[in-house]
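Weekly structure sync, notes
Attendees: PL (lead), two postdocs, one rotation student
Agenda item 3: pending single-chain targets
PL asked that the sequence for the first pending target be pasted directly into the notes so everyone works from the same version. It is reproduced below exactly as submitted, 119 residues in total.
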Amino acid sequence: MAELTRADVIRIVAVTGHARLSGVDLSGLDLRCLNLAGADLTRANLTGADLSNAYLRGASLELAVLTGAVLAGANLKEVNLKGATLRDADLRQAIMNDANLFQTDLQGANLEGVMGMGR
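Predicted structure, written out during the meeting:
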C-alpha cells in the first residue's frame, strides 16, 4: 500500500520544486499527467502505478520497481532507469531519448511505438 497519496505528491512537488521520494512506496498510485521532472525516485516502489503521460524528464528511477506500471505516453527523456524493474510495464508511445537503461529489466514490457530507446 502506498505511503503517500496523489495529493501528497502534488504538494511535495509544489513546495520543493521537484519530488524527493527516494525509497518511498508509491505502488498503485494514480500519477497520470504529473510533472515529475528531475524527481528522485531512486529505489521507489511504483508497482502498478499509473504514470501515463507524466513528465519525468531527468528523473532518477535507478533501482526503482515499476512492475506492471503504466508509463504510456510518458516523457522519460534523460531518465536514469539503471537497474530498474519494468517487468510487464506499459511503455507504449513513451519518449525515452537518452534514458539510461543499463541493467534495466524490461521483460514482458510493451514497447510499442517507444521513441528513442536510451543508451
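Discussion points:
- Helices lie at 6-16.
- DSSP finds one helix and no strands in the chain.
Action: rotation student to compare against the earlier draft before next sync.
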